[in-house]
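forwarding from the other thread:

> can someone predict this with iron/sulfur cluster?

sure thing
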Amino acid sequence: MGENITRKIIGAHRISGEMTPGSEIGLRIDQTLTQDATGTMACLQFEAVGLDRVQTELSVSYVDHNTLQMGFRNPDDHRYLRTMAARYGIVFSPAGTGICHQLHLENFARPGRTLIGSDSHTPTAGGVGSLAMGAGGLSVALAMAGEPYFISMPRVVRVLLTGRLTGWAAGKDVILELLRRLTVKGGVGKVFEFAGPGVAELTVPERATITNMGAELGATTSIFPSDERTREFFRCMGREEEWTELVADPDAQYDETIEIDLSRLEPLVAQPHMPDRVVPVRELAGLPVSQVAIGSCTNSSYADLKTTAQVLSGLRLPPETDLLISPGSKQVLKMLASEGLVEPLLDAGARLLECSCGPCIGMGGSPVSSGVSVRTFNRNFEGRSGTKDAQVYLVSPQTAVNLALAGQFMDPAEWGEAPKRVELPESASSIRHLFHFPPADGTGLEVVRGPNIVSLERFDPLPEVVEARIKLKVGDDITTDHILPAGAQITALRSNIPAISEYIFSRVDEGFVPRIREAGGGVILGGENYGQGSSREHAALGPRHLGVRAVLVKSLARIHRANLVNFGILPLLLVRPEDYDRLEQEAQLRIRTEDITPGGVARVEVQGAQDVEVTNDLTEKELNIIKAGGLLNYVRAMARG
Ligand code: MIC
Ligand code: SF4
């Protein structure tokens, strides 16, 4: 029987476990990436392991999320990351060089390699055939230490692409269509592997947009074959020798198939406040737009911005619409500049921002009160833009630039003729010299820490009985942005858990932190898909610091579930979803932790009410990790024997 690409890569990297969907497998990790907002924790955790050098083929530390350097905290973090990288053999990408996923795709991602990154959009590298997954910082730290990465063996979905994109339809519309069909929960436990004749019609940047935003499906990852198109991309990036072909066997088997005819796609838009609230752009015609932002790791490539420049050329934006553009990397910016494509952007009245995440993570560029902001990003969660009542819509750059010019939503039939789809030039001038490559031996080098960098806390083991009240009841699709908001002020505290914990659930319920502090701990009750979105482990670390020992939910998102385990919080699943309605905030619970067995059903006593049955999808090892108080304690105990 032939193999698909996903199983080929997993097969070649499998250290433990069976390749049957749902069973735990351990994978050897070739590459890791971290970014500043999650990287300081990951690096502190790597240091805590006590090795002299990273054990991976390649580890890169990017600074792209918070580059504002407002006050000492943020630049101190950057200096820590730079000196730590040199000391331990990590490539360092300084602030302003670009967004981690764009840079990794251009410079380091390789077909057939495994990559984990402390950022949920790490699957971007699947655009060139890497098996690339988002993970919590601690999992990345352990991979840097040479430890395997454990996942549940995914089901592989073949996304059969036929036809070719026409008119104003773009790569972004492929992933928006998948989100429309499958929703933000539709990819849990799955890898989306693209196949069929339509694949050759998509360029690497278009493919990377699709794999990037596959994260919004809740998928383990998404992946494209590595073919002649991929080779062209590697040639353009000056690293053709790193290209290898990687395709599925002709008789490869898949667990499921979905078909998309590219020629039938039209410009689509995800409406507030979820990436799966997708409708055709034409349905919103007439809605005024106050801000447009083009950029983020989803759509900031040379092709995206060249199209933007071509459409803007010779035109002027209306005064009521602000257009913000963040190139994905200095490489992109240089390529645009060399073709005279920066001028049309500036002349139209667009604002050119630094090559970083910027408005995508609320680092400036917040919309006006109740403003409509159209963005080429991947997430439109409520409040993420920094303006609580803003209405954020997600679209392709093609759509974004047309709406910016019109100052309102318009039917694509009225946009005129679409420019020719952008192909990559034969070669592009490199920016590789901007990375700091580490010395062969960094042992004598000093790692410089600022006062905001607070050492890791030691967590105690799980008690035999958890007696606590439900300190917060929340609904479905709670994102890690709800649990721990981003933005400049809060993100500057990512290396200081006691300080950042003050903001846990602050935008959902301001009373939560004082309440749980007074009680000395508690339980959180949630609905479906709890913890979707970002990989930020602070959304588990913060609650743990505040004394949360268990969450009771209907279902969980993959990375957040792993983060809860890593920091010793019990992720319990309600056997009967109707019990969710019955349980009130402040209900007093009693959980006997010895009753919790892998996959077993246990009773939770509820004071003055009927018991609730809970189950879990934990492996024995995961349960032991939680009982030990978290993964670091577990690893230490194992090391002691
Ligand atoms: C995001 O897009 O939500 C982020 C900010 O990149 C996060 C990482 C973080 O919170 O630092 C992610 O996607 O994992
Ligand atoms: Fe950065 Fe936004 Fe991409 Fe997250 S989604 S990595 S914040 S650009």
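The mean pLDDT is 97. thats all i got for now
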